[in-house]
Amino acid sequence: MNQKRILVTGGTGYIGSHTVVELQQSGFEVSIIDNLSNSNIAVVDQIEKISGIRPNFSKLDLLNKKGLFDYFENKETFDCVIHFAAFKAVGESVEKPLLYYKNNLMGLLNLLQAMLANKVNNLVFSSSCTVYGQPEKLPVTEASPLLPANSPYGNTKRIAEEIIRDTTNANSDLHSISLRYFNPVGAHESAMIGELPNGIPNNLMPFITQTAIGKREILNVFGNDYHTADGTAIRDYIHVVDLAKAHIVALNRLLNNEIKSNFEIFNIGTGRGYSVLEVINAFEKSTGININWKYSPRRAGDIEQIWADSSISNQILNWKANKSLEEMIISAWEWEKSLSK
Ligand code: UFG
Question: 101 alpha carbon to ligand 1 midpoint, in Å?
Fold first, then answer.
């Protein structure tokens, strides 16, 4: 059987690198393009150490349209593209909206054009539960209304889905699945790849692990007056390896022509929400390390609570998140410790 060839944009990033490993372990041949703006070339070595296979790597920016077209033309064709490459810092997107619209949307347009020109007809897109805004009804299903995004970043994900939908409508050969991720945390069990925040982490889990190891003095818990049991905000945290595996399932669905429409959307979460305090307490219990934390005002743009109804993914994709909050925490902590070795 011919080995299927998959192009992963943003494949040296956090979710991308974990997905590359799962792809290789599922027998796919992987090529990565990444501009390394928020990742490190050493990740390619780490991937090789885990899987025993070196992915093809090219440093390439999706905004470099000519470079991208040349890349596609010089390669044998790809069976599918998994598109991660994008900026993702919510706060930064509020400060620099044009940077976000340009990078995330122009990058997608160039990629779709290169795919169409080269008859690459399958795309898995990295979307986010941020497209739901603050839902009125919880948990959110794929049919929940898309409320105005809280940030330009979130808006780029919503608009990107619309661009993909319109493009699949206009090109019947093009098929796409969009995965709406909830909050990915944790790291590969090898502790050889994980989340590498640039500077001060924005996200909760890396901030917790950096506080625990002494890189940060104190964790700010943003808001204790939300309408939740303990007053802190609730999210659906999902282990990054469970999330990576969802891409393999989506990919196989595309390759086996099992899709029911040209553009399908799936929620990828656990279906269980945890408050910020519950995550801190779980970290302390799992590791035996006390976190220095204090309440701070709410963070601008944060929603109060969200968690997924993933039953459609469970049934139709036959995918389910398996890993517990404790496994997320332990793997994130092992990764943090490995960075100090
Ligand atoms: N939080 C803190 N202190 C921190 C960091 C975070 O209390 O130092 C809180 C936040 O206020 C929020 C929760 O922890 O209530 C989770 O925050 P994250 O920044 O980890 O995650 P977000 O839910 O804000 O954002 C994440 C991704 C986005 C994605 C979004 C979808 O970072 O890319 O989920 O909801 F769009």
Answer: 21
